[in-house]
Every structure is written in C-alpha cells, then in structure tokens.
Amino acid sequence: MSDGDPTDKSGFSKLPPSVNWCGDCDEHDTFAYVHKYEVSKNSKKSTRGLKFLQYDIENVRRIWFRVVCVNDYVNAPSSYIGNTGHIERMNVWTHLLAAVIYLTYTLIRPLTSIGKIETISSSLASFSYASLVATFMFSSVYHVYSANKWWSSAARVGDYFGIYLGISAGTLSDLSVVTINLKDVGWKSIADVWIASMLLLIFFCLRRFTLTAEETRLAYLPEKCSLGFARSTICDLEHSGLRAAAGMTLAFNWLMFIPGAFAMLENDCAWVFAGSRVLATAILICGMVLDNAVLYPDKWFNESEAPPRFCACYSKRDGCGGGWVMTSHAIWHLMALLSTIITTIGTEYSIVNSELLSAF
Ligand SMILES: [Zn+2]
User: Of 215, 220, 216, whose CA–CA distance to 88 is shortest?
Assistant: First the structure.
C-alpha cells in the first residue's frame, strides 16, 4: 500500500517503516520496540483497526517466507521472538509437523500388515488419515495468512472446511469400526455428520460474505506487544458460540458409538476404542482450557520478569531457525496432534485385533 493511501483507514501505511513506535500499547510505558500500531479515529478504545508491525503483512507474495522463515527486521530487544520472528511461526510449524506425520503414515500404511487388511473399516481409516493431512494443511495455510487482513478471512473458511472434513471422515471411520464394516447401517447414519458439516460450512461461508474483513479482525493481547505476543485474529463475533458448540458436538460423536463398540466388538477392542477416545478427548479439553483460559505463556510474563528458559520455550535468534515462541495456541496444536494419534492407535488396534472386523 502506498504512502498516504486513502483506503488505509488506520493510517498505518503513513508511518515511516524504520520508525520504532508502539503508541500506547507498551504495558510498561517504557521503550517501545516491537509493534507499531495506530488506532484509527473510529476504533479508538476498540481492538479493531490495530496493526502490529511485526505481525501484519500486506505483501502476500512474501507472506510464507516472512511467517515461516524470516520476518522483516525490527528492533525488538525484549521480544520473545526477537527481531525477525513472527508469532504465527510455531503455529504453522506444529501443524506442518502433524501434516507430515499423517501424510507419511497414509503413504506407508498400504505397505504394512494393517494396510493389507481389506475391510471397509481399514479403507475408511486410511481415508480419515488422508483427510487429517488436509485438515492440518488447511490450518497451516490459515495461520500463515492470518498475518494479512483480507486473506485471513478467506483462509479461515478453508480452515473450517479442513476441520469439518477431518471430523466427518473420522466419524465415518469410527462408525464403520463399531458396526463391523457398516453392516446394516442405513445411509442416513452415514450421511448425518457430513450433512451437518456441510450446513455449518455453508452457514459460515454465507456469513463471511455479509461481513467485512475489518469487522471480524480483532487485535489479541495488544498489551503484550513489547513481548511479541500481540496479534490479530479472525473472530466469529456473535457466532463464536455456534461454531464452538457445533464443533464440540461433532467431535463428541464418538460418545454415541460406545454402546455399539461394546455390543459389537470383542471386549479388548471395545475397551481400547473407548479408552482411546476418552483419553484423546480429555487431552483436547485440557488443550482448550490452556489456550482459552490459562493462556500460558502468552499472558503470564511481562517485560520486567523475563521467564527462565525452561518456563517458556522460545527463540529470539535472528534468521532462519529462530524467531518463535511456543504460545498457548502452538501448545494446543501439539496436544491436538497427540489426541489425534491416540485416537488413531485406538482405531488401528481394533482393525488389527478384531476377528469380527477382519472376518466380515
Ligand atoms: Zn491453530
């Protein structure tokens, strides 16, 4: 955006790029190093319209490099992410790690003894693992484009799509396991979760077109800007509850399958199936509490009390390989991956060990 662009209502582009200015975002009223933001006339006292120099990226051609590898230099001596870091960096890498793990497993599975089991359940399990690759990739893309005001709102729709795809494919795989390869299962039971997911996706797509990018883009932890924790996020506003409740309802579908597991599968398989879901869901809930309520380490430190290295995992190093901090959201990503792996183990155990599943 050019200097003095009339469409830039925040006035951010008018700031000389080399100036270190943090406005009133520095919670300690000392030096302002990391983020420079300006509140537009209309959004003063609100979290809309804020821009953070080390977060917001307008040139999407360099967005991947700047988020994932090396961000443009700013003078940021007290930041957890240093001079060339980006707060989304570890969010992206943790999801890419998950995508690589599931892609590798999806590719090598057909070569293993599990992959050679020719049942509907085994095929649907493979399909659900491939879907998880898409889920994690869509979320990685979303975290990269979170740095751009317009593209973040578009990528958010992709993020929804990936999540609903992963949940739907996983639910279908579970249904197949507990019904002995979908034996006597009506099409409505199979289509149920897919229809629900599709309706949610359509709703959030339509909603996206009724709102501007500015309306849904809110600053998050602007008071922690000097530490590098400030960022902008897409918010679902009055529909946040709907999205969270619908996602939880879909993700908890396995609860309805537990009676079926004990009725249809061998006892050990039923226990492993149920136990893996209980454990995985407990980890998911802990992750949600960490990311939404505890907010460690995002909210826990301030500039005058820099934590010891073992309290918060971060790298302030300039250049490739540095410039990241394990935020509560990145930790949640790893907990979500662990939860998914535990669910996968539960599914694979039944596919391998259930003679009823193999025989049908
Ligand atoms: Zn995420």
Answer: 220
